[in-house]
Amino acid sequence: GQPDTVTPTGVPTGAAPEAFAQQGAYLTTAQGTRLRDTDHSLKAGPRGPILLQDHHFREKITHFDHERIPERVVHARGAGAHGVFTSYGTAAGLTRAGFLAAKGKETDVFVRFSTVLGSRGSADTVRDTRGFATKFYTDEGTFDLVGNNMPVFFIQDAIKFPDIIHAGKWHPDREIPQAQSAHDTFWDFVSLHTEAQHHTMWNMSDRGIPRSYRTMEGFGVHTFRLVNDSDETVLVKFHWKPKLGVHSLVWEEAQLASGVDPDFHRRDLYDAIEAGAYPEWELGLQVFPDTPEETFAGIDLLDPTKIVPEELAPVQPVGKLVLNRTPTNFHAEVEQVAFHLGHLPPGIDVTNDPLLQGRLFSYLDTQLTRLAGPNFHQIPINRPHAPVNDMLRDGFHQHAVHGGVAPYRPNSLDGGNPFPAEDGFVDVPVTVTEAPKVRDLPVSFKDHYTQVRLFWKSMSAVEQEHIIRAYTFELGKCYEQAIKERQLQCLANIDPVLCASVALGLGLPAPKPTIELPEVTPSPVLSQVGRQWPAD
Ligand code: HEM
Known about the structure:
- By secondary structure, this protein is α+β, with helices and mostly antiparallel strands.
- The protein contains 13 helices and 12 strands.
- The chain has helices at 55-65, 98-101, 161-168, 184-192, 197-204, 251-260, 264-274, 330-335, 354-370, 450-458, 461-476, 481-492, 496-506, and strands at residues 78-87, 106-115, 130-138, 141-148, 218-219, 224-227, 233-242, 280-289, 295-296, 299-300, 316-325, 348-349.
- Helix 5 packs parallel to helix 10 (450-458).
């Protein structure tokens, strides 16, 4: 028969996490001994020193001394909520993943929204990218969609992640600024590493200061591969569309909110759910043929600094997300949740996007430190809602009491640990070329400006005005004139009007472009003004 394996099971649907260590009416020690007094330590007389034998004192203080865990190396500041994802069944022909394929199928989810650069205690309304990470507790294993509120990223190769984050976080000498990109190191990097210019303009646009988490779009950014029951594949990009539409703060509002209520977004999410105004998003897919070139309309689908404009590939709705329950305990849920791009159910697979590939390594690696050891998948918020029968054993913070004697395969003692191959995850057998090993990127990745110009040209006049003011303010905080001048050169390669306007604000001359500016057709869906959003 099956091995006698005992592992923690998932939190039941709709239930709050277990209230471990808060049972019974009376205060106890961690060992369950009832307390008479937790207000006074045990002393050698009322005026004497505290006695070493006071176990309750030592237990209470020692535990307190170790209450903090490291904040995330990025996305430290966040808020989260539970909810339900309901599939429309419209993706049935594309993927064998049941939570997407079966019409009406409901799946529990947990979502964590975040800023990227600020520390855990920083303000919510700073100009920054926002994380939008969703854990789907599917019957076939957990699926994590770890996205942002912007569809492009600063870098094309994951090996540059420490560089962009070192440049974007505070100055090493004075640890300022806490949470925004108004400083020399940020502009130094993005003006030298020009593939960052596209994401930077999204940051300088109104998208960088969302009104609320409820009014943000979400993007998986990378291209993923879906596989159906007939082993046919398509390439897709994931999009979240907020039911309330996309709304931003104006800059002055964001500054005021930072001071008056640094928890502005966190409070908004919590208050809305508690009031029954459940935030909703539609999940949609842009779907592309899985061709050997992995391009669509001349756009390289493996380049995470590029979008595919929605008028070229419409976003097709596949399901609905409703957030309907606030966390019971912030630490247990929002802080301890651990997302990973490799958490994929059968029917969804990765591509060779060199940013995605590096992320597959980084998240587990950092969580081994952040959550102290290899067993954080047993923390309630991280437990799959599918049965778990793995051969992972022991280690720090092991809570499972595993039975059986044979956590290895093949074996003849615990039933052999069979796995039915037809239901299991299959890595899509994509051909890996016979090209030599190189430290390089495709030539198609070398165009750093066309889509930034496309974005700029797609903005309404008022959005362009906000972008000009944002560049002017943020660059105005730089100490080094050479950095401002280098960024102005980047702006000249995007658009002369943009460059001249920012240069005027900075009191510097506007440089000429060093490239031929490409013709672009403005994309109506990039502007927030006048967009249609999913109806009921
Ligand atoms: C955390 C998104 C690129 C490393 C996060 C989080 C999000 C996110 C949403 C917060 C997760 C949470 O709420 O717990 C993205 C997106 C990227 C990207 C959309 C690009 C498209 C990268 C890259 C790396 C990386 C290239 C490294 C090579 C990390 C790390 C964390 C993190 C180490 C902290 C995870 C933890 O402590 O649990 N990212 N990220 N990210 N990201 Fe990324």
